[in-house]
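Complex record, two chains
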Amino acid sequence: MKIYLPGIELKIKALSSGIKLEPLGSSRYDVAISPVNLSFDCVYSVVKKTDKGRMKTMLSGESFDGAEIPYRWEIMKEGEDAGIFIDFFEDNQLEEVLCRINFNEGSIHTSLVPKTIMKEVVVDPLFQPYGSVLMVVLAHYQNDIIIHASGTIDNGTGRLFTAVSGTGKSTMAGLWQKSGAEVINDDRLWLHKVDDQWHFFNTPMPYYAQKPLEAPLNEIFLLSQSPRNQINRLTGVKAAMRFMANAIQHFYDKEMTERHLDRVLDIASRVPIFDCGFKPDLDIVEAIRKQAWDRESGTESMGQRN
Amino acid sequence: MINHNALYQVNTEKFVTRMMGDEMVMVPLSDRVADMTSVLTLNEVGADILKAFEKPCTIDDVISKLLDIYEIDEETLTCDIQLFVNNAIEKNMIVKVG
């Protein structure tokens, strides 16, 4: 079985009995929609207990309050290798998961500790939250960005809408869908460079299967709720930092932060970024299309109000 | 308090700095972890002052460097630099190195 992420091939294999890898969210990611730069042999095995060995915990966190499956996660490091540890507080199947990523060998070994009553563990190879943490680690390694955002493609123009949770990413995506655009994803996007152009991709989601989609990153909108539609171009470091605020940033050393900052500044220097206050109706879609047309035809300067 | 005989330098251990155009962005590091909630941005003038501290130098060295760049009288520049440097020391952006 193979799963393709932007620029990355995962060759998936169960190494022991007692585990069945059954793709759900990742089921349609068996075709590459971007050139493969990195390939990993991913083996899964069931163990009685995990052993972190000399891996050192660099970052850790917990699921948000009220999460259906509460857990604690760690990102670890030993030399060039990275590690992921998940401690499930109340999962139906799993107690713990430990993963070691050997970037030099191109291997990912994932050990699952099932609940003692389990005869067979059935999981998506990118099960939640392991898959999400793994994607963050791989994206950073490949010099990419994962961001909380929705994204659409409309007549070849790719637009990314980013905001804190509950501000309108999904609402905005829905409005574009009603207007005939295709929604790449309404929650999380992976930003990856292909032929010196940034693109955004959807990723395998935990609880539903979507086909892999991508679009060129042509415009970025920083969303806020507003009684009227307002679109204002932002420039410079301010634009870059506001865009960066919604990127997933699990960095634990100076070099990681430097590389991330370079990526963000590269995007901000290439892609127009807009402050976008909007009310949830179709007028905003037309206003955004109009600003793009005005900008391309040179009839608009820095901002536009509707 | 600024010591005019002391050497100061950008705190590269505690900050990641990058230029975008004429502006500078500084991301603080807390125990190796990037603190993205406390990112500092500097305009062109602030960036020029910070860049003057890339290598260890005294406040007077920096004033001298900036007098070469900006058309400004020395008294005004000295006041501005002292104000900026006090703030920068307080925020740990520059540190005394000798």
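Note: The two ends of chain A are 50 Å apart (CA to CA).
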